[in-house]
Amino acid sequence: MSPTPYLLLAAILFTIGGAGVLLRRNALIAFMSVELMLNACNLAFVTFARMHGDIDGQIVAFFVMVVAAAEVVVGLAIIVTIFRTRRSASVDDASLLKL
Amino acid sequence: MGVASALGGQTTEQAVAAADGVFSATWLLIALPLLGAAVLLLGGRRLSRIAPVLGCVAPLASFVFAAVLFVAMLGRDSTDRALSQQLWDWFSVGGYDVSVGLLLDQLSMAFALLITGVGSLIHVYSVGYMEHDENRQRFFGYLNLFVAAMLLLVLADDYLILYVGWEGVGLASFLLIGFWQHKDSAAVAAKKAFVVNRVGDFGMTLAIMSMVVVFGTTAFSGVFPNALGASEGWLVALGLLLLLGACGKSAQFPLQSWLLDAMEGPTPVSALIHAATMVTAGVYLVVRSAAIYAGAEVAQTAVVIVGAITLLMGAIIGCAKDDIKKVLAGSTMSQIGYMMLAAGLGPAGYALAIFHLLTHGFFKADLFLGAGSVMHGMNDEVDMRRYGALRRAMPVTFVTFTAGYLAIIGFPLFAGYFSKDRIIDAAFADNLVYGLCALVGAGITAFYMTRLMLMTFFGSKRWADDAHPHESPQVMTAPLWVLGALSAIGGAGLLYLGGGVIDWLEPVTGLEEHELGIPVWAMTVIILAVVAVGVAVGWLIFGRQPVPVTAPRGSVVTVAARRDLYGDAVNEALLMRPGQYLTRSLVYLDNRGVDGAVLGTAAAMGDLSSRLRRWQTGFVRSYALSMLAGAAIVVVAMLLVRLP
Question: Searching chain A, which residue's CA lies closest to the CA of residue B615?
């Protein structure tokens, strides 16, 4: 089995995700893009695990999923709170931390 | 243990016994006025009403006790009169132990009697003089502190303990000269006295440190017996450093400038500083350090020269001043100059210096308190050109002042006649130049004191319109009577009663008969002739013709003398201006150099950080972009490393 198509797919997904994070203002979209990047990485991990025939990559992929799930919980909570107070989900509006 | 004294270049030892019996309470001499000072200063205004009584009781009690000790000392053998009392161990550093102890011998006994006796009279006089001052409890507290510090100075048996008293005297004089600190001139004068004294103290400090190096101790009992064993270089250095200290306290050239300004204090303070405490400390120091000077001829010569210069300077300044207190201040400088000159002559002069110091204590206190009485009756006017014909208005002041006047010019049988003439004799026996200086000084003294007398008590009335001269109250005239009597008979009494003061001091100071080329009576005639010339000139100028109310311009010498012979100008040009220039350039260096470097660094960092801050836009997406760029750089770098 050649890993190239899988890795290409992973690279495309990662690029789409990265572009989404950088270009979209909506926090939810940006958040989804982050998830997309994480899953692109997962795909690469699993591909390499399969290629090398050991299980390490798959274990890391599970860890990433757990972390991503936890991140979703916290991140969505923040986004919802910001939306409630500012009536906006644009990441550019939440720029108050600068001086 | 023994205190060495120099006797014709050889060292004799007077055994020092431990104090017992009544002498074991010697510390009370110091403790009583110190207690008085503490009570008065801590009690504050509540004690205002009884402050005069409290203030007088402490030194009087001390005087009575000193008299008791004196009588007890008379009962002892003349070679067995030095007593030491160890009080407590102060500190010990390495091999250097300092224990607080007192040494009561003939010299310190004489001083203790003078300080407490004349000091008490001045306290009593102050009751009248300071009657209307609301801060009198503070005044009397400071006076008591002054007396206590001076007693510690003369009773200490260790240079370090002496130094404590020395600084105490400096502090008390500062507080008293600046007592009327609401006047700018008084505050400045106090500061000046303190600063000039610090210069002298600097010499004193170095002398004490040198003693620790050379002798390993500063106790008299450790220093004096070993003095002859030290190298001459060290002894000369010690002698000169001690002389510097003495010059500061005794207002000797070149540290004389503070004394004339010190007249800003209340008049009793001037009397106390000039007669009983403070300025006599330098003479005491030199006489006490006889063993050191015995091995340091250069330092002795320096003492004589300083004395001779000061005695002429003081006399010349006294001739030109119109302020009655400043005339007297000039005369103090001059008379202390006589004492220094005598002290510099070695064993031939030590006892004479102390003898003159005692008689000077009598007549100078008399003169100052008399001047204070005149001022008291004249609305605090000090300009003698505004006096005149006061002998009718103030008969008691006039009579007692006349006694002091006759004593200071050395009129036969008055106090100064005995003490000053002997110093002049001794000066001539040592060196013709010294003798001539002393002789000329006597003539000038006669001139300016005659001038003072004529301008104040004789001639026409030149009073201000609102002046109503009146005699002072009895509490002020009583001390005047006592001091006037002492000025009249004190000299003869000290010289001839019992064995006389010279024999009394002999075990401490040593004695060396001086040989004059001419008989003593001839010398006396010459001195009296010079004094008579001085009086006659004074009468010709100020007695025969009326005294102008405004001072005439005067000759170059007069103008110079009015300005203290440019002592202040010299200090300003040589020390103050360069000092100010130095501080200004240092401040400039500090502002521009040190601060520039520190503040410049801070400013550069601030500038840099405000530039860096622009990177922090607050936009999440730009952070994400920088993270991505960072990750990309890491990847590229890893690829670059691995590829080849």
Answer: A98
- Average pLDDT for A31-50: 93
Element (DSSP H or E) covering residue B101: strand B96-104
- Do B624 and A94 make contact, defined as CB atoms within 8 angstroms? no
Nearest to A91 among B613, B616, B620 (CB): B620
Q: Can you read off the two tokens belonging to residue B67? A: 């008299």
- Given the DSSP bridges, would you call strands B10-18 and B82-93 parallel, antiparallel or unpaired? parallel
> Residues B580-602, buried b or exposed e (16+ Cβ, 10 A)?
eeeeeeeeeeeeeeeeeeeeeee
Distance from C-alpha of A31 to C-alpha of A84, rounded to nearest angstrom: 17
Task: Encode burial over B378-405: b for 16+ CB neighbours within 10 A, e otherwise.
Answer: beebbbbebbbebbebbebbbebbbbbb
Report the distance separating Cα B246 and Cα B279, nearest Å: 9
- Residue B591 is classified by DSSP as I
- B61 touches B153 (CB < 8 A): no
**Lowest-confidence region among B16-20, B110-114, B243-247:** B16-20
Peptide bond into B52 cis (omega under 30): no
Residue recorded with tokens 């000329």: B440
Residues forming beta bridges with residue B104, ordered by sequence position? B83
Rounded percentage of chain B residues whose pLDDT exceeds 70? 97
pLDDT in the model for residue A93? 77
The pLDDT assigned to B49 comes to 82
d(C-alpha B318, C-alpha B40), whole Å = 36
Q: Do A99 and B621 touch (CB under 8 A)?
A: no
Min Cα separation B598/chain A (Å): 26
CA distance readout (Å), B477 to A42, B58, B265, B403, B508: 114, 21, 21, 14, 37
Question: What is the distance between the alpha carbons of residues B15 and B525, in angstroms, rounded to a whole number?
Answer: 42
Q: How does the average pLDDT of chain B come out, rounded? A: 86
CA angle B413, B419, B422 (to 5 degrees): 105
Kindly report the pTM of this predicted structure: 0.78
From the list B123, B119, B171, the residue with the least C-alpha distance to B147 is B119
Q: How far is B614 from chain A (nearest CA, A)?
A: 9
pLDDT category of residue B168 using cuts at 50, 70 and 90: very high
* Three-class DSSP category at B12: strand
Mean pLDDT for B507-516 is: 78
- C-alpha–C-alpha distance, residues B239 and B247, integer Å: 12
Q: Does B612 touch chain A (CB under 8 A)?
A: no
Per-residue pLDDT tens for B283-317? Answer: 999 999 988 888 888 999 999 999 999 999 989 88
> Amino acid letter at B210?
S
pLDDT band at B469 (very low <50, low <70, confident <90, very high): confident
Identify all chain B residues contacting A22, using CB atoms and an 8 Å cutoff: 621, 624-625, 628
CB B334 within 8 A of CB B311: yes
User: Could you tell me if B3 and B103 are in contact, meaning their C-beta atoms sit under 8 angstroms apart?
Assistant: yes
Work out the pLDDT band at B644, boundaries 50, 70, 90: low
β partners of residue B83: B17, B104
* Position B467 pLDDT exceeds 50: yes
What pLDDT is attached to residue B7? Answer: 40
B618–A97: do the CB atoms touch at under 8 Å?
yes
A-interface mutation test, from B609, B611, B621, most A Cβ less than 10 A away: B621
Check residue A98 and give its pLDDT: 63
Round to whole Å and give the CA distance between B358 and B368: 15
Look up residue B578 and give its two tokens.
């360069």
Read off the tokens for B580. Answer: 């100010």
Give the number of beta-carbon pairs within 8 Å between A and B: 29
Cβ separation A95–B618 shorter than 8 A? yes
